[in-house]
Write a structure and sequence with these properties.
By secondary structure, the protein is mostly helical. The protein has three helices and no strands. The protein has helices spanning about 5-10, 15-20, 55-60.
């Protein structure tokens, strides 16, 4: 066995320490693993890059405003 193979066999916690790291990103920017619904106001992709167009704003009017 080479020295590298012996070192890896003797210290298995070294690989675990290398994988553990802190992530400072905003967790609210991402969906959680169990979040399967679209949520209020979310609509299936319309292909416009997520921008809110005129159709979206018109759909947000309260119902008592009429057409």
């Amino acid at each position: 066995m080479s020295e590298q193979e012996q070192g890896q066999q003797q210290d298995p916690s070294a690989t675990a320490k290398a994988k553990a790291r802190l992530v400072f990103g905003d967790p609210l920017d991402q969906r959680s693993k169990d979040d399967t619904d679209a949520g209020w106001g979310d609509r299936p992709g319309s292909g416009d890059g997520g921008g809110r167009g005129l159709d979206w704003y018109l759909s947000q009017r309260p119902p008592h405003h009429g057409d």
